[in-house]
Design a protein that fits this description.
The structure is a homodimer of 108-residue chains. In chain A, 63% of the residues lie in helices and 13% in strands. Chain A is an alpha+beta fold and 108 residues long. In chain A, strand 2 and strand 3 form a beta hairpin. The structure holds a DNA duplex (30 and 30 nucleotides).
Chain lengths: 108, 108
DNA sequence: TCAATAGTTAGCTATTGACCTAAGTATTAA
DNA sequence: TTAATACTTAGGTCAATAGCTAACTATTGA
C-alpha cells in the first residue's frame, strides 16, 4: 500500500545492483523460498536478505512467511510501472524528432 | 561503441538517482546545452556534470561539444534496451501464471 | 525432546557516491 | 585584446551501501 508513494527512481535504484537485478530475473521464472533463491549467489545469507529487503521495500518483490519458510514473489505491477515510464520517455523523444522532421519538410 | 558491453543493471543504476532520473525526463523533451539542462537543479555545476558523466558513461545520453557549448541528447536506444528487459521479466512472469492456471483447469 | 533447518538480528568495516569549493582552460563577443 | 561565458579539473568531506561474522529465534522431522 505504500507502493504508490514511492518515486520511480527508487525502483530503478533497486534494480541497479547486479545481485538484485539477478534476483528479479530468477523470480520472473516463478516464486521461490529465500534459501532456494539465495543458492546461486555466493554471498552470506544476511547480505542476501538485505538485497531482498530492498526489493521488497520498493515494491518489486512481495514475500510471505508460512511456518519457517518465506516465499518470494515478483510484483509484476511494479515492473510494469518502471517499463511504462521508460516507454513514455522514448515516445516523447521520438515524437519530438517527428515534429522536427515535419518542420524541415515545411521549409523545403 | 562501448555501450554493447555495459550490463543493463548499470543502466538501471544510472537511472536510480533523482537528479539523473530528472535529467532523462528533461532530455526526452529535446536536446539541451549543459547550462540550460543544469538550470533547474540547485546543485553546483561540477556535481551536475558528474551526473551527466554517469548518464553518458552508461549510454543513456550522448554529448557533443561545439565551440564552448556541449549539447546533450537522450540516447533512445538505451532507454529501449532497459524497457525491453522489463517487458521480458513481466512476460515470463505472466506466462508462468497462465501455465499454472492451465494446470489447475486440467486437474478440475 | 532434540537436532536440523530456515530465516533473523546485531554490529562492524571498507568502499563508493553525492556533494562541495577553488582554480583552471577554451571560446566568443565587444 | 580583454572580459565574459561555458564548461573542466582537482581535491576534499561525509553519509550510505554492500559486504562480513557471530549469535539468536522459530519451526519441523526423527
Amino acid at each position: 500500500m505504500a507502493n504508490q508513494s514511492i518515486s520511480l527512481d527508487r525502483v530503478f535504484w533497486a534494480l541497479g545492483d547486479p545481485t538484485r537485478f539477478a534476483i528479479v530475473e530468477h523470480l520472473s521464472q516463478g516464486s521461490l523460498s529465500v534459501s532456494e533463491l539465495a543458492k546461486p549467489f555466493s554471498m552470506a545469507l544476511p547480505t542476501f536478505l538485505q538485497h531482498l529487503g530492498v526489493l521488497e521495500k520498493y515494491g518489486l518483490v512481495s514475500t510471505k512467511k508460512v511456518g519457517r519458510v518465506r516465499t518470494c514473489t515478483l510484483n509484476a505491477e511494479r515492473v510494469d510501472q518502471a517499463r511504462t515510464w521508460l516507454e513514455i520517455q522514448e515516445k516523447q523523444w521520438t515524437n519530438r524528432l517527428d515534429a522536427l522532421d515535419k518542420l524541415l519538410e515545411d521549409k523545403s
